[in-house]
Amino acid sequence: MSALPTKANLAASTNIIVPGSGFKIVSGMPKTISKTADSGKQITSHFCGDCGSTLFRDGPSFGDNKVIKAGIMDDVNALEDAKPAVELFVGRKASWVLDVPGAKKVNGMP
């Protein structure tokens, strides 16, 4: 087994992209880890130092935006209000995972 599983998020990772100007951490200070993504650009994951859950990501591919893990949001209606616009890494998804109607398909990270 490799040090980092390559298919850990195979089925889905639901994220909401928000402008950095509208983003605020309300308590605590996340820990971070940065790596070079498939695109060759740096990506930084911010995570809870207590439980290890990923909270959000940022990096040059996203401009000033923050890519927030939808499950951490206080607003329970956030997923209802956000229609998926893009599916990433479509070449890696399992055959039983359905396409999201109307979403742009990208094989990798832009």
Question: What can you see in these coordinates?
Answer:
This protein is mainly beta and 110 residues long. It has one domain (15-105). Helices cover 4% and strands 26% of the residues. It is built from one helix and seven strands, in the order βββββαββ. Strands 1-5-4-3-2 form a five-stranded antiparallel beta sheet, with no helix packed on it. It has a two-stranded parallel ribbon with strand order 6-7. The protein is globular.
Helix content: under 10%
Question: Biggest sheet: strands, sense, closure?
Answer: 5 strands, antiparallel
Mean pLDDT comes to: 84
Shape: globular
Tell me the domain tally. 1
**Strand numbers in spatial order across the main sheet:** 1-5-4-3-2
* Helix vs. strand class: mainly beta
Strand percentage: 25-35%
* SSE pattern, N- to C-terminal: EEEEEHEE
Radius of gyration: 15 Å
- Low-confidence parts lasting 5 or more residues at pLDDT below 50? 1-5
Q: Can you give me a brief rundown of this structure?
A:
The protein has 1 helix and 7 strands, in the order βββββαββ. It has one helix spanning 78-81, and strands at residues 15-18, 31-36, 42-47, 54-58, 66-69, 86-87, 104-105. The strands form 2 sheets. A 5-stranded antiparallel sheet has the order 1-5-4-3-2, with no helix packed on it. The protein has a two-stranded parallel sheet with strand order 6-7.
